[in-house]
Amino acid sequence: MQTKIGFIVVCASVLLASAAGSAAHCLRYLPSKVSVTGTVFERTDWGPPNYREDPAHDRPEPHDYIRLDTPLCVFGVPGDAPDDITEKNVSIMELAWDSEEWPIPNVVGRHVLLTGGLFHAISGHHHTRVLLMVSRVRAVTVTEGKAK
Prior knowledge:
Helices cover 16% and strands 42% of the residues. The protein has one helix at 2-24, and strands at residues 27-28, 34-46, 60-75, 87-97, 111-120, 130-139. The radius of gyration is 19 Å and the shape is globular.
């Protein structure tokens, strides 16, 4: 009986260590700053008033996205903002540009390193689970950089 309990304790310890290790490789939401690399593209999504339910009256909204070089996960912390949800296998993120701070650069079709803060989708204007509020842009070659 003690052998079974010992085995269960060891298995539980290994599982917890594995979960903690994988969480350590995940990025975090704002206020943390992150850097990601990928290719920027533009896509038009349906907007108000009904976000695709009535295409005859819904307004099309162009948005910029990044197709990440490497899928990532974002770790939500229990007790943080209710929309900070852990997300796995994020490969595309909608980009939010702070146009009041600086002009939005023309990076569509370019491979870039983007730095900023992650936040979870909270409105109909958000078309990916995780978005990046961009604070810095740098063009890179395909072999440079990974998510940090």
